[in-house]
Write a structure and sequence with these properties.
The complex is a heterodimer of chains A (249) and B (290).
Chain A: E1 2-11, E2 14-24, E3 29-33, H1 40-48, E4 55-62, E5 65-68, H2 74-79, E6 82-84, H3 97-105, H4 112-117, H5 127-136, H6 152-165, E7 170-174, H7 182-197, E8 201-205, H8 209-215, E9 218-223, E10 226-231, H9 233-238, H10 240-245
Parallel strand pairs in A: 3-8, 3-9, 6-7, 7-8
Antiparallel strand pairs in A: 1-2, 1-4, 4-5, 9-10
Helix pairs in contact in A: 3-6
Chain B: H1 2-29, H2 37-53, H3 58-79, H4 85-105, H5 107-110, E1 123-124, E2 127-128, H6 132-155, H7 157-167, H8 169-173, H9 179-205, H10 215-228, H11 233-245, H12 257-278
Antiparallel strand pairs in B: 1-2
Classes of the chains: A alpha/beta (249), B mainly alpha (290).
Chain lengths: 249, 290
Amino acid sequence: MLSINNVTKTFGGVVALNKCATTVKQNEIVAFVGPNGAGKTTLFDTISGLIKPDYGNITLSIDDNTEELTKISPEKVANLGISRTFQQVRLFPNLTIQDHFIIAQSKNDMRLLAQIVAKNHMHEKDVPFHKKILEQYGIDRDLNLYVSDLSYGQQKLLQIAMAVMREHKIIMLDEPVAGVNAVVQKKIEDILISLKKAGETIMLVEHDMEFVRNIADRVVVMDEGSVMVDGTPEEALSDSQVLEAYLGE
Amino acid sequence: MLTGYLYNILIFSGIYAILTVSLNMAVGFTGLLNLGHVAFFGIGAYTSTLLTMNGVPYIVSLIVAGLVSSVFGVILMYAVRKLKGDYLALATLGFSFVVYSVMLNWSSLTRGPLGIPGIPKPELFGWTINTTSEYLVFTLIVATVSIYIINRITTSRYGKLLEAVRDDEVGLSVYGKPIFSLKVRSLAISAFFAGIAGSLFAHHITFIDPSSFYINDLVLLLTIVLVGGLANNKGVIIATVIIMLIPEALRFVDMPSSILGPARQMIYAIVLIGILLFKPRGLFGRIDLE
């Protein structure tokens, strides 16, 4: 489905990605692990189109169509079905929770004239649906609350909800449980397990090995911008190179 | 006499309300610190003046004034597409100076510093708007329609996208929204209404010269938007009326006219500094000035 082909990216003299290559199949949950600076987030940013690689390419194949993601803008990548979250939440602090849901969900919000003449352009009919999502994600807050008033954990949950609710083929989650308390971490784990059951294709950057072992079908261990080991969680997390480089054992 | 004076203040308040609410769309809602707004105002004024003086019906001139300003807005946005924040502000300020210089030096078209006198009063479908009271009604109609449209945009789902551009462009791009297109459209719409305001201004005072569209006016516009509050249309309209009225008090103070002009600018500067120091979100705003 997603093919990462020898992607190289340097920032000045720093090699962030070095001939990085792997694939992601449909309905698969792939965890990307590795020490800080291994290139995991750079890889996610490259897949999203936020960073252009120096060499190599990334392709997305759906049915008989293949698109080269590294040649198109982040907006087009997103519209091909790549949905993602960021390690540090990137929400819009002066907008409400409902505004965020509308942004994630809506496809027709660029039709300016239609919105000027529309009777009810804020889609109040979506309110029950949005309230249901809040309930599902354990965000016990009012839809009209500004997101800057949410706790960090609630912001993380909202970001995941937005990534899931928009039409997508692949969801990329960059350290979804980093910096959240145990209750929110458990909630996020439950959400991911339900997404796994629903047959979603998920790419995940995570440091919590127990979490990775429980959720991932496959683990890609990265170091210095390259793929060091690629296999099942058992294979990858018991590899001697991995234990030495990543876990320090 | 006093009625005419009051009507004039209200006419200018209406014109400046269009200008400031449209500036707020770019600066407050979209986060584009556009210091070229006064240039769009000038482009609209000159376009409308030149067209009507060459026999084009006023209603056509009014709309074309908006459209020409809007086209310059699109050109400006393409030119500064790689810039953000302070750099964008500097580049758009440069645009203001360029437009001012063109108005000043393209004498065959604009009569340069001599300005263009005798601009005809608007004529709409056989009705010539001659009196101040008629012009007030006309201005209020145009201002109401303009502000209504801008308000519809900024409170719609489209407006939420503009606010999202202001808050986090990268964050928005991963939801598949075209950031550059949103910025271009925002500046084009903002410039369109500045052009409309320029037309109203020119045909009211019936004389324009480049000095009407210089940086002094830009300071006034920014002061109003910051006092009213970024991304708050109601606040900006209230601030427009307040700030248009404050300097009028000087008329009743016995001072030479050579001091009166600079005194107005001083008042704007004091208000601006006071707001930045003590109420950085403005009187009614909720967005921090960054």
